[in-house]
Amino acid sequence: LCVWQARSQGRRLSSVVGAEGAGGSTASLAAAGSWDEGERAHLALWSVDIDANDGPQASRLVEVEHKGCVLSLAAAAPLLASGGSLGDLCCFSLVGELPELRPCWSKPVGTGAAVLGVGFSPNGHSLAYCTERAELGVLDRGGVGERQLGCSDESSLFSVEWLSPHEIVTAGANVLIWDVRTGRGPAATLLPKSGIPRHSAPQLLSATAHPQQPHRLAAGATDGSLYLWDRRAAASLSHSLAAHTAFTAHEADVWQVRFVRTNHGEILSCSSDGTLTAREAPAASAEPMDASTLISLEFPINAFDVSPTHGGLAAASDAEVLTFIDMRAS
To answer: Nearest 5°: phi and psi at 198?
Structure first.
């Protein structure tokens, strides 16, 4: 593996996302946010060059102050959205050949609780967010038209992702699937385990669907477990469904999980145990295969993303560095 790190910024990095500038920009970009800095954190934009003559490089283009800790990031060219610990949703535009971060709008959403997850719809026209008070809302990319998508029994919603132009998946005590057209609460529930009281079950911090096979979903939990579902096994799309496979993947919280095809497996996950691993998805009820450790640090790895332009992976951690992997060779 080709792994390298950007120089220390003296800040713990909480989130990262691959980004694209406006039409005409050829820069390969990554945006990263910091936390645990009080009411003012920072959001930085990086240029990433995997094919530089003297080896892979990452250089910081611009850094701006951010209201509250940066808890979540999402990108849809040329926009970058961030969710903050003070309950604000912010949107920036990436402008220029070597893009700058130009603020577009910033507003409190929901009831002012920390915004733990943000995500753009597949066409980039809508933006969904979720909060620590289990609120799920949608608004347009211009920051108007906000509406709440019903309610659930969750205490918090930790992540949000679009499954399709009409469906959103969130992670909390359960994985919930919402139909944005109805606004009547979750349309389906995916249970980590059947028969486990909600108050004693581990919280799910991240949920994701396979990009080419959206019936396959995975989630990572506070106890280090990964859970897998196949929605085709449900009696109907509105029925509850227990995970067909569950196993311990990490020694601490699993902050993010993604389906990414690599030579080491298709399920990538990062954790407070300081590792980012890859493994093949086991068949239903089968024993999980051994994982390959792609990154190992002495501090928690809080988030990762794979660039839509250059295929490189960027990971944000409490080690105060951005760690990159050239995924083309993996």
So the answer is: -55, -40
Q: Among 260, 259, 255, which Cα is nearest to 271's?
A: 255
Spatial separation of the C-alpha atoms in residues 51 and 37, rounded to whole Å: 34
**How far apart are alpha carbons 154 and 221 in whole angstroms?**
15
The single residue listed with the structure tokens 């108050």 is 199
Number of H helices, E strands in the chain: 0, 29
Q: Please tell me the distance from the alpha carbon of residue 205 to that of residue 140, in angstroms, as a whole number.
A: 25
Residue 328, pLDDT score? 75
Give every residue of the chain whose pLDDT is below 70, as ranges: 8, 22-27, 37-39, 194-200, 235-239, 285-286, 310, 329-330
Are 330 and 268 a contacting pair, CB within 8 Å? Answer: no
147-154: long-range pairs with CB below 8 Å, 24+: 147/183, 148/110, 148/183, 149/178, 149/180, 149/183, 149/185, 150/178, 150/182, 150/183, 150/184, 150/185, 150/186, 151/185, 152/176, 152/185, 152/186, 153/198
* Identity of the residue numbered 19: A
pLDDT of residue 217: 96
The predicted pLDDT at position 58 comes to 87
Strand, helix or coil for residue 233: helix
Structure tokens at 329: 């060779």
How much is the pLDDT for 151? 78
> Is the peptide bond prior to 78 cis by the omega test (within 30 degrees of 0)?
yes
d(CA 330, CA 277): 12
Task: Give me the residue label for tokens 């024993």.
Answer: 287
pLDDT at residue 213 in the model? 94
Measure the CA–CA gap between 15 and 320, rounded to whole angstroms.
12
Separation CA 314–CA 90 (nearest Å): 22
Q: What pLDDT is stored for residue 208 in this prediction?
A: 98
Q: Which distant-in-sequence residues (6+ apart) come within 8 Å of 63 by Cβ? A: 42, 43, 44, 45
From residue 192, alpha-carbon distances to 90, 115, 196, 220, 291 in Å are 32, 24, 9, 10, 21
Prediction pTM value: 0.93
